[in-house]
Write a structure and sequence with these properties.
The chain has 170 residues and is of the alpha+beta class. A hairpin with a 5-residue loop joins strand 1 and strand 2 (39-45). The protein has 5 helices and 7 strands, in the order αββββαββααβα. The protein is globular, with a radius of gyration of 18 Å. The chain starts with 14 loop residues before the first helix and ends with a helix. The model has no long low-confidence stretch (mean pLDDT 90). It has helices spanning 15-24, 67-74, 112-126, 132-142, 162-169, and strands spanning 27-33, 39-45, 47-49, 57-63, 77-89, 94-108, 146-160. Strands 2-1-5-6-7-4-3 form a 7-stranded antiparallel beta sheet. The longest helix is centred in the last third of the chain and has 15 residues, at 112-126.
């Protein structure tokens, strides 16, 4: 698929900055084709893994059933948005924002080794100081009810407010 170019090219972030936002972010919004043709957007914690292909991949966890699981089973195309900065400047009627949008295909990690590696990646992202024995016990406790998803990024774009673009070029 050919993804459309950004309309405001001057505000486009360099690819490495967009990836840096994914690396430091802790939550975003996953957008899917939901029930009855309605969009379904759900906030999620995630982990970025730069090893998952040219643009990398995002890892999510989920319960084994629900709207998200059903939507992914119907259509594996997804978008994920991370907001890195959102500073409202009311006196200027603007927002100093920086964000990233990814597009890709999402799949359930059904192989036990892939699933284990993904949950360990997510665990170490959010609880880096947890002893490995405690991490393993927690994973085992939820293992059977846990789904792990991978969104392999096909397209990635980052954008910032024009004011931030001007500051970057100074």
């Amino acid at each position: 698929m050919e993804f459309r170019p950004m309309r405001r090219k001057k505000q486009e972030l360099p690819q490495e900055e967009a990836v840096a936002i994914l690396r430091r972010g802790t939550s975003g919004v996953l957008a899917l084709a939901g029930d009855g043709g309605y969009p379904y957007a759900v906030p999620l914690s995630y982990a970025y893994d730069g090893e998952g292909g040219e643009l990398g991949r995002l890892i999510f966890h989920s319960a084994a059933a629900g709207h998200k699981v059903d939507a992914i089973a119907r259509d594996d195309r997804a978008s994920f948005c991370v907001i890195d900065q959102d500073d409202v400047a009311p006196e200027k009627f603007t927002t100093r924002f920086r964000s990233v949008i990814t597009f890709g295909r999402i799949r359930v990690l059904s192989d036990p080794a892939e699933k284990r590696a993904a949950i360990e990646l997510l665990s170490r992202r959010y609880a880096p100081d947890m002893p490995r024995e405690a991490e393993a016990a927690e994973i085992e406790r939820f293992w059977n009810a846990l789904l792990m998803f991978e969104l392999r990024i096909e397209h990635l774009s980052g954008k910032e407010a024009i004011e931030l673009t001007h500051e970057r070029k100074r």
